[in-house]
Amino acid sequence: MFKTNSPASQRLIDALMRFRTLQHHHRPVGGLRQSEFWLLAKLNKAGLDGKRGVRVSDLAGMLDVATPTATQMVKRLEGMGYLIRRRSTKDKRIVHVVPTKKGSDFMENAHRQFVSRFEAVVEYLGEQDSNTLAQLLNRVTEFLKNHTQNEMR
After folding, report:
1. The CATH number of the domain where 44 resides is what?
2. Cβ of 83: how many Cβ atoms within 10 Å?
3. Which residue among 1, 26, 38, 67 is least enclosed by CB atoms within 10 Å?
4. Dihedral (C-alpha) 68, 72, 73, 74: value to the nearest 10 degrees?
5. Cα–Cα distance between 56 and 60 in angstroms, integer?
6. Closest Cα to residue 31, out of 77, 90, 89, 94?
7. pLDDT for the residue numbered 72
8. Secondary structure of the chain in the HEC alphabet?
9. The predicted structure's pLDDT at residue 94
10. What is the Cα–Cα distance from 61 to 65, expressed in whole angstroms?
11. What is the largest CA-CA distance in the chain?
12. How do residues 11-57 score in pLDDT, each as one tens digit?
């Protein structure tokens, strides 16, 4: 698809494109769409940070989606039993979204599976190669971030 004059550039493009295709093979976790999964993850993290719920508009901001889109995701997740909406006792116009036990348990299980997968990668690659890969990915990310910012100026 992308052809370069440099064999190293070509290998890097090919490797990153193969890596990227893994996302296309991603199956919804527990019947959730990817966006719904991330909404539940953000909500769960907020609970771990001591918050008693998150407004839908704040969730929309965290996910970089429109509030009506977040509202639809909340409605679907509520229907599946992963979260509930609670009206503020002080201001009835404010609605906070909170994970249910089912939602929290689901995210704990997803977290364990995610961590386990990367621990298996480290076991496969070894500590040294895993550390090298992490350093290289961080460097590439930083380079591309800066390069993109410079192009926008």
Report:
1. 1.10.10.10
2. 26
3. 1
4. 90
5. 6
6. 77
7. 96
8. CCCCCCHHHHHHHHHHHHHHHHHHCCCCHHHCCHHHHHHHHHHHHHHHCCCCCEEHHHHHHHHCCCHHHHHHHHHHHHHCCCEEEEECCCCCCCEEEEECHHHHHHHHHHHHHHHHHHHHHHHHHCHHHHHHHHHHHHHHHHHHHHHHHHHHC
9. 86
10. 6
11. 65
12. 988 888 888 887 666 666 778 888 899 999 999 888 767 677 899 99
Report the candidate in 92, 96, 94, 52 with the shortest Cα–Cα distance to residue 74: 96
The residue with tokens 């509202």 is: 71
For residue range 71-108, list pLDDT tens digits in order: 999 999 999 999 999 988 888 888 899 999 999 999 99
Q: What would the mean pLDDT of 109-113 be, rounded to a whole number?
A: 91
Q: Which pLDDT does position 6 carry in this prediction?
A: 92
* Count of domains forming the chain: 1
Query: What does the block give as tokens for 58?
Result: 């704040």
> d(Cα 40, Cα 73) in Å, to the nearest integer?
9
Residue 2 domain flag = no
124 falls within a domain: yes
Q: Which residue range forms the structural domain that includes residue 115?
A: 7-152
Q: What mean pLDDT comes out for the span 124-151? A: 91
The mean pLDDT value for 110-115 works out to 90
In a domain, 94, yes or no: yes
